[in-house]
Every structure is written in structure tokens, then in C-alpha cells.
Input
Amino acid sequence: MGTVIATDREGAEHRLEAREGHTLMEILRDGGLPIEAICGGQCICSTCHVYVDAEWAGRLTPRATDEQVMVEDSGHYEENSRLACQVPYVDELDGIRLTLAPEF
Ligand code: FES
Output
């Protein structure tokens, strides 16, 4: 078990309990953050878009092609963009920091 540190769209920081076996999207959603995740993690809606802090971004598995296409089409793409539903939480990510991307 670990912690995900998420900054919401108003700039408030939230420390969320995280367990392996869940995606970052599930951790954000279950932690009460306003992340829509309309498609339920199918990589087809981009409503789970987050920016992973630079110090952590390089530790994640690279984006797959479908994730890359979706974040690039989101209108708010940054180099550190990720779809939270495509990033499984593992204990090595304890303390990861991320920020919710703007809504559509
Ligand atoms: Fe839809 Fe992540 S929940 S793309």
C-alpha cells in the first residue's frame, strides 16, 4: 500500500491511499476526485487525463499507441500527459505526484 499525491483543478493537494491491482484512475475516482472516467477505463474517453510530475513520468511504462492518440486529441496534451486508467499502480510508485488535466 502507498500514496498517490494528486492536485485537483483548483490547486488543492490530496493524499490518496493506493494499492497494487488498481489503476491511477481507480485510485483518483475512489479517492473522491472529480475525474469522470466515462468509459470506465477502456481508453476511449480521455476524461481520466492527468499530468504526471516530471520526476515520476519517466518511471512509468511508455504510452501505448491508443493512449498516445487519445491524449494527443484531448486538446490539453503535454509531454507528461497520461490517461490514468492506463497506468497500473505498483508499490514502486509510492509517492507519485500528478495533477488533473482541465476538463474538455
Ligand atoms: Fe476513459 Fe481513461 S477512463 S480513457
Q: What stands out?
A: DSSP finds three helices and five strands in the chain. The first strand starts at residue 2 and ends at 7.
